[in-house]
Write a structure and sequence with these properties.
68% helix; 134 residues; 8 helices; mainly alpha; single chain
């Protein structure tokens, strides 16, 4: 499920709490792990997703964590790494869950299908070892 992601580091960060992310790299790792988890949960396709509130909740939770981690990336990193539309990623959860009491599974699925592939590619570009400190 995790592929190239560092699940052990994410577990440590979650244990400390997201507010305790020590640096940009930890934020980016958390973002990458959330993307991997969303991809895993959505792998069954739209039909499975629409029929499972468990999958919907898991994807929504990881969208929230993804947005929260993006919010914690430093302004310096964001200005250096413009491959990602940081404002969009930071607001992704709010966009999908405008009213948390009336969630629309279709809106969540559209986000997974249309938005996340580009975010994943751009995040991978940022995290390549040759790109510097991140």
């Amino acid at each position: 499920m995790r592929g190239d992601c560092d699940g052990a580091l994410l577990a440590q960060i979650l244990e400390r709490g997201y507010r305790a992310m020590a640096n940009d790299r930890e934020c980016l790792i958390c973002m990458r792990e959330c993307m991997t988890r969303i991809q895993h949960y959505a792998a069954g396709g739209r039909g499975d997703f629409m029929n499972s509130t468990l999958m919907q909740d898991a994807v929504l939770w990881n969208l929230q964590l993804l947005s929260s981690a993006a919010l914690r990336v430093s302004a310096a990193c964001k200005s250096e790494r413009r491959e990602l539309n940081w404002g969009h990623v930071c607001g992704l959860f709010r966009e999908v869950a405008q009213d948390p009491w009336h969630l629309e599974p279709e809106a969540i699925w559209q986000c997974v299908e249309r938005e996340l592939p580009a975010i994943r590619r751009n995040l991978a570009a940022i995290m390549r070892p040759t790109t510097g400190q991140y």
